[in-house]
Request: fold
Amino acid sequence: DTGVSQDPRHKITKRGQNVTFRCDPISEHNRLYWYRQTLGQGPEFLTYFQNEAQLEKSRLLSDRFSAERPKGSFSTLEIQRTEQGDSAMYLCASSEAMGYGYTFGSGTRLTVV
Amino acid sequence: GNSVTQMEGPVTLSEEAFLTINCTYTATGYPSLFWYVQYPGEGLQLLLKATKADDKGSNKGFEATYRKETTSFHLEKGSVQVSDSAVYFCALILYSGAGSYQLTFGKGTKLSVIP
Reply:
């Protein structure tokens, strides 16, 4: 297993465009998390999946954001009508069912111009 | 709510100097505590953790002790190397009550070690 993979590593988009990021967790981990990290800040929780069910969403996740995890495997995070304030590093992490030990991916850095 | 406060950087040290990065927390429950490290352009790597009071986490020469009475988890290393240059994040984890264990991070402290 190569850990948590995220794609793409970098994305530059024009304001108003839609973007989608992908996360492939560690295969035996059924918990998946998305966090957002803005410049000079620590990561902040966005949303949580247990298998395919999205069980929690932060108030940071506006209605322009949507996340899915079909079949409880990989996950996607889509941002519609991007704004400059969406520029950040988007981090995905997964963990085992009975533990809370996270493994983070390398992140997707989004720049909205 | 839950929060983590860590000393602001940047911190610049000479190689082989002693490192301390202070971290304090407030939490509504009994959290586990972590230090993560982030190298330029990379995601987060777990450096060490402690799950209960008086536990000492250690890894790669770094240490931190869970002090419940002072709600602190200060990171220390006796002799830093150039390769330790990175951003260090203190974090706590608590069960959210809705199925997840959410990490709450401090703002990070950038460490630069010069030869």
